[in-house]
Design a protein that fits this description.
The protein is of the alpha/beta class. It has ten helices and eleven strands. The longest helix is centred in the first third of the chain and has 17 residues. It is globular. The structure holds ligand BJW and zinc ion. The site of ligand BJW has 35 residues, from α2, β10 and α10.
Length: about 240
């Protein structure tokens, strides 16, 4: 713990990759395991363009339910510790796969949302995007002013990551002296590949997770425990 604290204090640049585990203690369900269920559906079967094409109302009901949970959620001590780490660091980039915006709420600034935001809606016809924080949405599925069907502004399987943001994430991972990988199962690509990218760039890689993941064997330190408990201790 002491060695990692010192590493963080002295690092020229820090990049962090976060996943659903960081928001778990704020009451936001993760994707995999028993948590990743809604009614009788697996979360991962709903997060696809095919599911949306087949049944947009069903997929929107799931997103509306998640938006409602997230609207009540507050950043936990892991989000707050990462915002504090940014304030204390020279170069800091937070790459998040989470769509809940809880890092923004905690005060993080340099955030790359590689899977989008659940608060953005995008028209499938005219492509216009806007923030819509209404919970619940008045009509499901919601429609654009142009009459087109709106979709959540998130990245589904088989879709490209947002232009510009992914390149910045790769650059930050490559240039990092310390790379933290926190609360992600590290199975979804290309985000999981950032761990390798950071290693190739020479970073010390530290993982925080309640269980081991496919990248645990490749990192310099694997801290087993909850992010909300461990991150504040690393900052103390
Ligand atoms: C705690 C904790 C606590 C719990 N403290 N820890 C084969 C090889 C490589 C790639 C592919 C492949 N086959 C297909 C692909 C591509 C595919 C992919 O990766 N598939 C794999 C699953 C096999 N990827 C894509 O399609 C991506 N796009 C792409 O590749 O574009 C190029 C392309 C174009 C055209 C065709 C093909 C390719 C896009 C991926 C988009 C992922 N989208 C989602 C949904 C977002 C919207 C939404 O929120 O609804 O993103 S899926 C879901 O998984 C979500 C998450 O961001 C993402 C990652 O999940 P995460 O965050 O890791 O959560 P969990 O639940 O998995 O894990 C939680 C972890 O926390 C666990 O480890 C717990 O132990 C831990 N934890 N409590 C610390 N308190
Ligand atoms: Zn439109």
């Amino acid at each position: 713990m002491d060695a990692i604290r010192q590493l963080l204090r002295e690092a020229r640049s820090i990049a962090v990759l976060t996943g659903a585990g960081v928001s778990a203690e704020s009451g936001v369900p993760t994707f995999r395991g028993a948590d990743g269920l809604w009614k009788q559906y697996r979360a991962l079967d709903l997060a696809t363009p095919e599911a949306f094409e087949r049944d947009p109302k069903l997929v929107w009901e799931w997103y509306d339910w998640r938006r409602s949970l997230i609207s009540k959620a507050r950043p936990n001590s892991a989000h707050l510790a990462l915002a504090e780490l940014e304030r204390q660091s020279r170069h800091f980039t937070l790459i998040t796969q989470n769509v809940d915006d809880l890092h923004d709420d905690a005060g993080s600034r340099n955030i790359l949302k590689v899977h989008g935001s659940i608060w953005i809606v995008r028209c499938t016809e005219c492509g216009r995007e806007r923030t819509d924080r209404r919970v619940p949405l008045p009509e499901l599925p919601p429609k654009c002013d142009c009459g087109g069907l709106l979709r959540p502004g998130v990245v589904w399987f088989g879709e490209s990551l947002p232009a510009g943001i992914w390149e910045k994430a790769e650059e930050a991972a490559h240039d990092a002296a310390v790379f933290l990988v926190i609360g992600t199962s590290a199975v979804v690509y290309p985000s999981a590949g950032l761990v390798q990218t950071s290693r190739r760039g020479g970073a010390k890689v530290i993982e925080i997770n309640v269980e081991t993941t496919p990248v645990s064997g490749t990192v310099d330190e694997c801290l087993l425990g909850s992010a909300a408990e461990l991150l504040p201790r690393l900052m103390a």
